[in-house]
Each structure stands twice: as C-alpha cells, then as structure tokens.
Amino acid sequence: MQKLKILPSIITALTALTLTSCSTTTAEQYEATALTSYTWQVKYANNLTNEPRPRIETFATTSVLNRNGVKPPGEVIGPDDRGLWWPTLPPRPSVEQVEQRKKPQEEAGKPELVKDVKYKLTYGMGNAQNTLPTNYEVYRQVVKAYPQRTPLQLTLGVNDNSVEKAEPVSK
C-alpha cells in the first residue's frame, strides 16, 4: 500500500523535470536539412539464421543533402512521397567483395540496400548559430515556412539537445 502513495509524487517530479528541461525559442533565420543516403551492407555470422547480432559490414554509400525542400544540385532521384530527394544508387558489392570480408567459418548474407535520413535544423540566436538534430515534421514545417521566411517558434528537446517541434509565429 505504501508504494501507491509514492507513485503520485514520482509522477509529479517526472512531469516537473520534463517541463523544466525543455524550452522554446523564436527563430527568424533557419535552415532545415535532410541528409538522405543509400548504403549497401552485408551480414556475416557463423550461423545467420540463429545469430541474434550478426557482424555487419558496410560497402558503398551515396548521399544527398536536401536544404529547405529545394532540389539539390547534381543527379538526384525524386522527390519521393515525403518531398525528399535521394542520391543515385551506389554500386552493389560484387560476390568477390562480399567473400573478401568473410572470416573463416562465417556465412555471408545477401547484400541489402539500407535507406537512411538524418534531419537537422540550424537557426540563429543573436550572433550565434545552433545546429540540432530534428525530425521529419520539423523539416516539413520549415520547408513550408522558408519561402516566406515566416518566423518559427521552436520547441527544444530535453537539455536543448534537439528540435522537437516548429510552429509558425503569426506576425
């Protein structure tokens, strides 16, 4: 029964901690980027069907930096259904390349093409610039606000280590 009395105080403390560790700021200068990449990788293990954590080797990678939703220069594919531009595919590893990285007693899996996106937001605060990781929703909000340079209210994550939300500020 004693545990139930402590639970509300724990919830209150966690809520207070969460509320005080996030902050908001208004940004008039900002740039959102989405680094899209393709990477070929191969799993290796003594027994690929039973190995919970196979060794993973990476082969060729290509990437493209999307800025504010504008088509990047060079040869790109897209935009996709999320408005992102992608690089051309890297060369698939050959059988010889896959076998070269195989250790004795290991099996090699089939080459897998992995898609990845890393979002970042750079914004000005006074004379300083901050660049923080963010998410797809913030990226899209910036893409919509950027052409008119609409100021954005940014909600920063715990310890101001990320941008969790961006909302237009009405002038």
Structure description:
- The protein is an alpha+beta fold and about 170 residues long.
- It contains three helices and ten strands.
- A hairpin with a 6-residue loop joins β9 and β10 (about 165-170).
- Helix content is about 20%, strand content about 40%.
- It is elongated.
- Strands 2, 3, 6, 7 and 8 form a five-stranded antiparallel beta sheet that branches.
Unreliable spans: 12-19
Helical percent range?
10-25%
User: What pattern of helices and strands is seen along the backbone?
Assistant: HEEEEEHEEEHEE
The major pleated sheet works out as:
5 strands, antiparallel
Beta-strand percentage range: 35-45%
Structural class: alpha+beta
Radius of gyration: 22 Å
Shape: elongated
Query: What does the average pLDDT come to?
Result: 90
The N- and C-terminal alpha carbons lie at a distance of: 54 Å
- The helix count comes to 3
How many strand segments? Answer: 10
